[in-house]
Every structure is written in structure tokens, then in C-alpha cells.
Amino acid sequence: MRKPMRMKPAGLWKRLEQFATPAAVLAEWQEALGADFGDFRDFVHATDELALEYPCTNRPSCACRHEVVPMRMVAACRCEPRDCESIALEPKDVLVYALDTRKLCGAIRVPLGFEAPPDENAVVDGTRGTWPVGTYGQTRSPVFLTVRLTEGDF
Asked: Which residue in 43, 49, 74, 76 is a FRET match for 137, CA 20 to 30 A apart?
């Protein structure tokens, strides 16, 4: 049984809406989720993808996306005029972490009492960004999680 999330769901959804895609470096996940990141950490996993950009973590922040310079292992500010210093990085800092939709669907399913779907890894034909959460009660109605990038996509 998965541990329940302690975050308030409404706050979670608002925070997830900050992402253009449900994948980012850990620094972005941490900044977006704030103090709730610890409770959410199990729902992201490292991918093989390396970030080309990195959020400004300087204080004060210039709020721009810094360019990752792999040879120097820094994230360089590209603002005009340049507002802040480059950020020193380690190889783990540039790993992209993606939302683990299977785990998230499980965490949604358990407290709502849905039954597990026949195949948790199923791809729903013609519906990119949609995953099976489970089935609802005696009606056996399927329940899905859909993540869309824009209102038009939704």
C-alpha cells in the first residue's frame, strides 16, 4: 500500500500547473512544491535526459532560465544585461525528473477506494497525457488522470 500524500490536493494541482511538461530538474520541482516537496518526492523519477536549461536559484533571482554549460558544469545567465552569476552544478543537478504517473495514479486510487485498473501501464489510445487510475465501484466505470499543457488541449 502506498503512503498517502499529506499535501492538500487543490494545492498540488495548482503547483503542477506551473510545469509546461511534467518533467524538470529537481530544483524546479523543489521550488514549485516548496515545503510539500518531501511528500511528493516519491512521485518523480530520474530519466536519462539531461537539462539544457536550469532555473535561476540565485537570491535575488533574475527569474530567467540559465543555459547549462556542460564543459564547465555551470548554469550561465543569458539575460541582457547579465543580472546574476553562473550557478555551479553537479552532474546530478542536470538530470531531468519526470512525474511517475503510475505511482501518482495509485496514490489517487487508494484513498478514493477505486479498484486497480486491469493494466496500470496501459496507454489509452488517442489520448496522449492520459493514464488509468482505476475503476469505480459496481458500475466498473474507468477513471483516468489526464494532464494537458493548455486549456485547448484539455
From this structure: 43
- pLDDT tens digit sequence for 55-75: 999 998 888 899 999 999 999
Joined grid coordinates for residue 86: 553562473
How many other CB atoms are there within 10 angstroms of residue 87's CB atom? 19
How many other CB atoms sit within 10 Å of the CB of residue 39? 15
Nearest CA among 114, 104, 110, 109 for reference residue 22: 104
Q: At a CB cut-off of 8 Å and minimum separation 6, what does 92 contact?
A: none
- Amino acid letter for position 40: F
- The packing angle between helices 26-33 and 9-16, to 10°, is 140
Give the residue ranges of DSSP H helices in 34-76: 37-40
Rounded to an integer, what distance in angstroms lies between the CA atom of residue 10 and that of residue 104? 15
- Radius of gyration, alpha carbons of the chain: 18
pLDDT-derived band at 149, boundaries 50, 70, 90: low
The pTM of this model reads 0.78
Angle made by CA atoms 100, 152, 12, in degrees to the nearest 5: 35
CB-side neighbour CA atoms (13 Å) of 79: 14
Torsion, Cα 37 42 45 51, to 10 degrees, reads: 0
